[in-house]
């Protein structure tokens, strides 16, 4: 675990406003470290904010509390009868999950390629693009319950997913997301329902082809993001 005191936040959020500092910044790589810092914040009633990649967060003044940078990463694949169950820790970069699953022959995330941010944040706002949202494949979200610091599983049907919305923006705001479970069908069917695919060459459609197609569109659109 790394700790920075009175340190600039510039490198921890996409909009990188200069001269803004946080009182303390903890960078956590292990689940136990994340639990420890979270526990300290709750028990001592300290103001805190947890960040993934900081691509949806803008600091406009100094932050007098604790910023937790979540780098708890890792991905586990379980084979079920009809689908792959992917259990992913919340500090994993979303786009890396798309790339990793494609690489091992598990398909279904390609429409959501090149979206900035981490897995934890992805369910908070129910990320979506090009005809698909994370709610379409999310099975569960694991959170740390602040009263006993135990991990609690919220099934997707209870996440209140809606357009760029979930229960984690409201009733479960005080919780830290630890991991997300996704279910990806073994029998892959391309999702070409969005208008961007109007001129897409549909012969021999492969997941990698959709991934590349979306990459071209998004790289033109969002020049500031490096993947
Ligand atoms: C150029 C650009 C393009 C984008 N394109 C899209 C798009 O196509 N579709 C789309 O849906 N979104 C898009 N977004 C929005 C962004 O990708 C998402 O909001 C993403 O989920 C943010 O992830 P992050 O890790 O950077 O979030 P952060 O900014 O780090 O955090 C966002 C919020 O989540 C909270 N949070 C983060 N991690 C946790 C955790 N583990 N537990 C509890 N709370 C947590 C933070 O406290 C904060 O309130 C885009 C953003 C940019 C800058």
Automatic annotation (TrEMBL):
Pathway: Cell wall biogenesis; peptidoglycan biosynthesis
Catalysis: reaction(s): UDP-N-acetyl-alpha-D-muramate + NADP(+) = UDP-N-acetyl-3-O-(1-carboxyvinyl)-alpha-D-glucosamine + NADPH + H(+)
Keywords: Cell cycle, Cell division, Cell shape, Cell wall biogenesis/degradation, Cytoplasm, FAD, Flavoprotein, NADP, Oxidoreductase, Peptidoglycan synthesis
Highest taxon in the source lineage: Bacteria
Major subcellular location class: cytoplasm
A GO term from the CC aspect: cytosol
GO biological process assignments: cell division; cell wall organization; peptidoglycan biosynthetic process; regulation of cell shape
Pfam families tied to this protein: FAD_binding_4
Cofactor(s) named in the record: FAD
EC number, as in UniProt: 1.3.1.98
Cell cycle keyword on record: yes
UniProt-listed PROSITE patterns: FAD_PCMH
Compartments, as annotated in UniProt: Cytoplasm
A GO molecular-function annotation: FAD binding
Membrane spanning stretches: none
Catalytic residue positions: 164
FAD-binding PCMH-type domain span: 18-187
NCBIfam families referenced in this protein's UniProt entry, alphabetically: murB (TIGR00179)
Biological role: Cell wall formation.
Family: Belongs to the MurB family.
Protein name in UniProt: UDP-N-acetylenolpyruvoylglucosamine reductase
Organism of provenance: Buchnera aphidicola (Nipponaphis monzeni)
Highest classification ranks of the organism: Bacteria, Pseudomonadati, Pseudomonadota, Gammaproteobacteria, Enterobacterales
Gene name per UniProt: murB
């Amino acid at each position: 675990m790394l700790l920075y005191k009175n340190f600039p936040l510039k490198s921890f959020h996409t909009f990188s406003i200069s001269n803004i500092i946080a009182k303390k910044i903890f960078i956590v790589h292990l689940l136990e470290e994340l639990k420890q810092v979270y526990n300290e914040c709750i028990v001592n009633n300290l103001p805190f904010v947890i960040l993934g990649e900081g691509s949806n967060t803008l600091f406009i003044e100094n932050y007098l509390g604790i910023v937790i940078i979540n780098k708890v990463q890792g991905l586990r694949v379980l084979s079920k009868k009809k689908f792959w169950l992917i259990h992913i820790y919340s500090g994993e970069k979303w786009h890396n999950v798309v790339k990793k699953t494609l690489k091992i022959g598990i398909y279904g995330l390609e429409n959501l390629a090149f979206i900035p941010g981490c897995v934890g944040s992805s369910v908070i706002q129910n990320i979506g693009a090009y005809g698909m949202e994370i709610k379409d494949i999310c099975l569960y979200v694991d959170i740390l319950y602040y009263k006993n610091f135990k991990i609690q599983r919220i099934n997707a049907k209870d996440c209140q997913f809606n357009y760029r919305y979930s229960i984690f923006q409201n009733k479960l705001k005080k919780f830290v997301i630890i991991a997300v479970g996704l279910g990806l069908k073994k029998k892959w069917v391309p999702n070409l329902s969005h208008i961007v695919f109007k001129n897409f060459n549909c012969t021999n459609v492969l997941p990698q082809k959709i991934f590349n197609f979306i990459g071209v569109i998004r790289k033109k659109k969002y020049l500031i993001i490096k993947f």
